[in-house]
Amino acid sequence: MKHFNIIFKPDDKQISIHAGATLIEAAGQAGIILNTVCGGKGTCEKCVVNLEPDSQQVLACQYHIQSDLTVTIPAGSRFFEQKILAEGIDTKARIQPDIYEKYLQPDSAAPIFGVAIDIGTTTIVARLIDMTDGRCLTTQAELNPQSRYGDDVISRITYAETDAKLAELHDTIINCVNELIARLCKQACADAKCIYEIAVVGNTTMNHIFLKLPVKQLGQAPYKAFSLDARDTPANELALQINPAGNIHTAPNIAGFVGADTTAVALAVDIDSAEEMTLAVDIGTNGELVLGTGDKLYAASCAAGPALEGARITCGSRAAEGAIEAVIAGDGNIVLDVIGDCPARSICGSGLIDAVAVLLELGIVDASGRFVRASSLADKVPVAIASRIRTELGEPVFILTDSGAAETVFLTQKDIRQFQLAKGAIRVGIKLLQKKLGLEDSDIKRIFLAGAFGNYIRAESALRIGLLPDVPAERIHFVGNAAAAGAQMILLSRHCRAKAKELARKIEYVEIAHEKDFESVFAESMSF
Ligand code: FES
Question: I need a labelling partner for 326 at 20 to 30 A (CA). Which of 103, 347, 359, 430 fits?
Answer without folding.
Answer: 430
